[in-house]
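Changelog note: in this version the structure field was regenerated for every chain. One regenerated record is shown below for reference.
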Amino acid sequence: MAKPWCAVIAATKDIAEIYLDAFGLSREMWAIYRHEDSLHGRLFDRIVVIRPHWRMDFEETARFERQITEHWRHRVETGGHFKVI
């Protein structure tokens, strides 16, 4: 599998970078993407999606679950791991 084979997804790349630093995750293994980034055809072994930190209304929550979460869930290899935190 091509490196990096794991991804942290957040509203901004700065937020994803903070998580990488906080947990000591290697940039060699972990890529950083924004919620809206599109990587058609690229698959990862492990994806962690960071839910937005601000209060979301019903429509924003539905959009996040329907569009963003589902988009990234399909970028996980068979047998891989997908988490939303």
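Spot check on this record: The chain is about 30% helix and 30% strand. The first helix runs from residue 13 to 23.
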